[in-house]
Amino acid sequence: MKVRIKFGKYGELKFIGHLDIMRYFQKMMRRADIDIKYSTGYSPHQIMSFAQPLGLGITSDGEYMDIEVDSTKPSKEMIDLLNTYNVDNIRIYSYRELPDNAKTGMAIIAAADYEVRFRYPEKISFDLKSDWPRFMEREHINVTKTTKSGESEVDLKPLIFDSHVMEDGLFLKLSCGSVVNLKPEVVLGEFYKFMGEELGEFDLLLHRKELYARGDDGELIALEDMGRDIE
Amino acid sequence: MVRKLALPDEILLKVEKPARYIGGEVNAVNKNFDEMDINFCMCFPDVYEIGMSHLGIQILYDMFNKWDKVYCDRVYSPWPDLDKIMRDRDIPLFAVESQRPLKDFDFLGITLQYEMCYTNILQILDLGKIPLYTAERTEDDPVIIGGGPCTYNPEPIADFFDLFYIGEGETQYKNLLDLYKKIKDENPGAWREKFLHAAAQIPGIYVPSLYEVEYYDKAGVEGDNPAPMPELAGTISSFKPKFDFVPATIRKEIVLDMDNTYYPEKPVVPFIRATQDRVVLEIQRGCIRGCRFCQAGMVYRPVRERSLEFLKDKALKLLKNTGHEDITLSSLSSSDYSHLEEIVNYLVENIHGKGINVSLPSLRIDAFSLDVMSKVQDIKKSSVTFAPEAGTQRMRNVINKGLTEEDIIHGADQAFHAGWNRVKLYFMLGQPTETNEDVEGIAILADKIARKYYEIPKAERNGKVQIVASSSFFVPKPFTPFQWARMNSKEEFLEKAKICRRKFGEMLNSKSLKYNWHESDVSVLEGVLARGDRRIAPALVEAYRKGSIFDAWSDYFVFDNWLEAFAKYDITFEYYNERERVFEELLPWDFLDCGVNKRFLQLEWNRAKEARVTANCRQGCSGCGALVFGGGVCFEGKNKVR
């Protein structure tokens, strides 16, 4: 049975990189005695894949991993069980069965929500409420990207699916995935440039909220909504 | 839950592996620091991934935290990247869980696993804003206590420690902490001296500041304190307690009942991969073998085994509580454990599979171990390992390594027939009485193993054989029969490695053989620190002030810092390494009693020179002295503890 798990990552856990988080969950599955499926071969490993790695220093309410299990209890019980074996700064939010033919989150990821806050709000010279709309009302937000094959122009505008100013920061819905992955710090870097300033390495506090795939009609569906609770 | 971290995000995001400094791992214990009677910070003076792999600390951490009103936290050496930032910004070193500065603790316990971490001790104290010398510490500083194998000669670092705990930590720490609390409560603001004086009377506790050391004049038989014989020039003339109530000798502490003692069931599981990322089951302590170069084989006597039931129970609990995918056995010589077959078969049958691996320690290669290895390892990818330690039988007799050429060739042959085609061999260069013939014997032995492989008909062979031989340089250690031995110089070591390498090139199967040898700079320095005395301390500080830390890491080891520091304080390799000591010499560690007595070590040193072997503890008792502890292998098959 395919199962999608949604989890959050908080506090100092933001200093634990993606590969170590994977190792963490492998050990956690064994502590909680989850009947997870193993690959065959000389060194079997758990069948587990993560939708999208989270960068170092970023917290999140909306991380996903897909696993396969041979047996399971109802979703509610599984969430409690997993949380019992987690450290405080990892929380499981949903545990849902996926259709057998479902693709992994990694393969279908299309968008991500972020909240952007400022580490040193007192140092900010711009007024987000008026300046952000000015930044976004332009037709193109062209940036020069340096790749192995040289320089190329990329327009960020169509990759920013949604945005609005919050009480203490900014909300962004950005294109995400293996094809076109837009990082919030790149968007903010452009915004700072637009304001005639330079974004410092540690100026932002980033928090991911949710990950989405595209539905049949092109609409964005949160990854957890593609599964159903096990009763 | 938001914990306040000692380092700001900007630093943590800049340094390599920030997880080294944030604590909060699975099974880490959290107690309210301010409500404790005693806060104890346990330190492994090397990088986090090494420190977290150490079973001894896990045992003590678990033990301390089981006690009411005692909290044990941990600290490791900040890696050079963070070290620099902390110095530049004047950030005091902190413990990983409470994130409190080291200065806030009652105790800082430092484990001394190898000599090359000595500058890291100074780094920890210095960054912790704690005076380096015991003499400079005040009522506001923690008590600095050392433990672990290097305490069997604590003298080069004696000036930096308030106390040393000699032996196994499970037995006396409760008494020590209770004493501390009582004295501190009764004498707030004036407890330090009173506590050190009282602690000196607890078994196994050595308080270096309460002893006075004097030396014969270096010039020899002239001067104020002339040596009675030329060989003793510059050596210790007396080592005495300063007060009547301070014991003249200190006997190590040991655990006798290995089943009813502390053993963690929920060890801390790091977020980042530790060097030892697995469950470690300690099956026994001590070793019956008596190899004459091996300090562990002497100072951990007598052998004491844990029961099969104890190990089965712990194995399952530890795997469940950690989620580790690997389990391994730990001991000095696992093949000598009485229930080895039972425990290994139990692990293979009940635990192997389901994503759990059983990784085997180096076992004696025989039918049993090959059978087990073939079950848990991929024969094509793994190798079989032998540690002959020396290339000729004469040399192996000198070091009392009870492994014959026949054992090795026969074991390798069995492994080849079972499908293995890779062999690892470990040797030491520079052991006492070694000749060029012994050195060349290493290559000859490796070649013989290769020849054995090619005796197998081609159709039954598994491609080419690959034999990798490595040699380290022998460093004489305290409390071994070789403690009196002359150590080779750096030049002699390199010459021997060259002779050995040349011989490898001349061998028939040289294309199947590979030879590696270790650094010689580190070895000769280790020699000085291993058998040094209190006169080394200022040179250690000098090397540290020149920037030496992480000496065990070749990327950071700067030999010149040490050469300059040694020159400044007149410390020579000739004196500390390159002379054979006479029995009349008072050795810096003679005031310690590890059970094995000096008479036995002298006897063994004499037998070594005659290339005579000595029976192991199970073949027959040689009367080493460890019987005084009243337990372990000394009483096997006899009536229980006397």
Tags for this model:
heterodimer; A: 231 residues; alpha+beta; Alpha-Beta Plaits; ten-stranded mixed beta sheet; two-stranded antiparallel sheet; 5 helices; 12 strands; elongated; B: 642 residues; alpha/beta; Rossmann fold; pyruvate-formate lyase- activating enzyme; six-stranded mixed beta sheet; four-stranded parallel beta sheet; 20 helices; 19 strands; 14% strand; globular
Explain what the structure shows.
- The complex is a heterodimer of chains A (231) and B (642).
- Chain A has 231 residues and is an alpha+beta fold.
- Chain A has five helices and twelve strands.
- Chain A has two domains: 2-106, 2-Layer Sandwich (Alpha-Beta Plaits); 108-220.
- The longest helix of chain B is centred in the C-terminal third of the chain and has 20 residues, at 436-455.
- Chain B folds into two domains: 9-207, Rossmann fold; 279-518 and 581-628, tm_1862 like domain (pyruvate-formate lyase- activating enzyme, Alpha-Beta Horseshoe).
- Chain B has a six-stranded mixed β-sheet. In chain B, strands 15-16-17-18 form a four-stranded parallel β-sheet, with helices on one face. A three-stranded parallel β-sheet of chain B has the order 10-13-14, with helices on one face.
- Chain B is of the alpha/beta class.
- Chain B has helices at 9-12, 48-51, 55-66, 80-89, 118-127, 173-186, 192-199, 295-299, 308-322, 340-350, 367-376, 393-398, 405-417, 436-455, 490-506, 520-530, 537-545, 559-568, 573-576, 598-609; strands at 38-44, 70-76, 107-111, 143-147, 163-165, 205-206, 211-215, 236-241, 250-251, 279-282, 284-285, 304-305, 326-330, 357-359, 384-389, 422-429, 466-473, 513-517, 592-593.
- Classes of the chains: A alpha+beta (231), B alpha/beta (642).
- At the A-B interface, α1 of A face α1 and α9 of B.
